[in-house]
Amino acid sequence: MALQQHNGPDQIVPSEHIVTTRADGRINLRIPESGKAIETTPPISVPGLLKRTADNSPDCPALAYKEDGKWKQITYKEYYDQVRICAKAFIKLGLKRHHGVCILGFNSPEWFISDLAAIFAGGIAVGIYTTNSSEACYHCANYTKANIIVVQDQKQLDKILAIKSRLSDLKAIVQYEGEPTSPDVLSWSELLTIGKDQGDEELERVLKTIAVNECCTIVFTSGTIGKPKAAMLSHDNLTWDALTISERLEVKKRGEVLVSYLPLSHVAAQVVDIYIVMINSACTYFADANALKGTLVDTLKEAQPTKFLGVPRVWEKMHEKMMEVAAQNGGIKQAIASWAKNQALEHHLNKIQGVNSNSWGYCIASAVIFKKIKQALGFNRCTLYASAAAPLAADIKRYFLSLDIPIMEAFGMSEAAGAHTLCTMDSFGLDTIGMGLPGTKTKIVNPEDGQGEICMYGRHIFMGYLNDQEKTDEAVDSEGWLHSGDLGRIDQKNFVYITGRLKELIITAGGENIAPVPIEQLVKAELPHISNVFLVGDKKKFLSVLLTFKTEVEPESGRPLDILIPNVQEWLKSLGCPAKSVSEVLRAGPDPALLHALQDGIDRVNQQAVSNAQRIQKLSILPVDFSMATGELGPTLKVKRNIVAAKYSDIIERMYA
């Protein structure tokens, strides 16, 4: 057991280690002796941060949620009190120090409260993706010795009940939405009643044992290759990163409203949604579970956010819908829209180059046209639009740039407490992931032609992987640098660019190393009716590509349907090969006109290839799109390359026969 001291929760317990793989381990914080990293953000625990905000801004709204069609708010004082009540209940139910509280559900106040209560009570908060299977949930709960599991509803509860008998450390299950049907499961109201019946003495005793440099949160990596690893994050990892992000994003005043659509079990969401709002008394509005089915815009209109953060799929869905609407406009409207978009695009491209050109055309378009577009989207007050969790295609960013909506990209890892680099309104581009946060360091190791592995250093770098010394040593070197596994470069202005991923490199039969993602994004840009692009060619003589069409999605499960979305149908009709479904396209073999159109797009990509080895020689159309529900995409919507390669091995082999 690690050394206990009793001056918490904001104490730092001495340690000589820069990493640990023990749940009760402590690390030596990467704090410089002087400079901005220490002067503006002295170490503080998560409980200390929430208490400070509740004391300073007790009546400010912290969380907003919808109930019976009406928005309700929770103030910071109420938030703090509910977290303490929940923490006392967790302790009473048997939560031990350094044991997990797993949370399995969609974004909600109960999710936030459970997360923070686990930390207050001396446990470790563990988010689980709602898309996880029962076995994946078992891995997370068993690995973290979870004493308590909090679930959203019956659907998520069923996953836990199926594995309950195998979880020897489990003491209680709580369901926060609806009434539990199982007698062994507590409702949210029953949990709070237990907490209200407890005194404060035990909670205060536990808080005094907490240290800033111990683990408070575990984030399981998305597991695109092998089982997910348990990344351990300290209080300082989270609070320092959140304080620094809030400064870069200028979340500085009360009255800020944040709306986000990120999976809460992903650390980026935890840092942004939970901790930034604590720091500056901002309020988080919750997008509901049907956000990608059309309700997100309703939430935006009602919440009127000043900051909006979404995963790339959110921006892609907005783009698809807006393209459908635009296609139905008459010739005059289309001409006006085209003129306005050119004005905005020129303005922002000039701004990227450092030229502030507020032309009359841009000012008129902004006041007359873009103002209405932003009102229709709920972006009237929005000063920041951001994307995180996975790369956003440059053509999507370019499209929104032409609507006067510049999307700022953030880059980070579970192992870097969310963000390491950010684009801001003063420094952004179409293909960069921004500059490092103040107080962080970035370097490129083993560079060839200016490109190499991106490595990161700072107070946000994680503690280590729970119970996995080998993987920890692979990720963090002896000097404390985190090796990202991403290939990239840094330009003269200190902008960072990702050019590929080490583990995803395709090595052709000729020995050339090729990063697939940049090529895949180029194909998507040239063929906007294509949903997913998958480059193949490992150990082969040439590159080929698998393509999926954009199709409708089953509302409940998120599974892609056979029906093509309207603008894809219109495109096929314009080619002279009308079809309403993918199966119709493939039934007698793709029409030559369609293949010619796809090949034209591939040819345009090939013209940009730096070598013959990077030219795409063949293509195949897949019968169904990728999705989380069908297993090709991970929780952050990154492609699981090994899954796709195995699933379509027969099609791949036919291309090389």
UniProtKB/TrEMBL annotation:
Keywords annotated in UniProt: Fatty acid metabolism, Ligase, Lipid metabolism
EC code: 6.2.1.3
One term of GO molecular function: long-chain fatty acid-CoA ligase activity
Domain AMP-dependent synthetase/ligase: 51-466
GO CC, one annotated term: membrane
Record keyword Ligase present: yes
InterPro entries reported in the protein's UniProt record: AMP-binding_CS (IPR020845), AMP-dep_synth/lig_dom (IPR000873), ANL_N_sf (IPR042099)
Protein name: long-chain-fatty-acid--CoA ligase
Organism for this UniProt entry: Zophobas morio
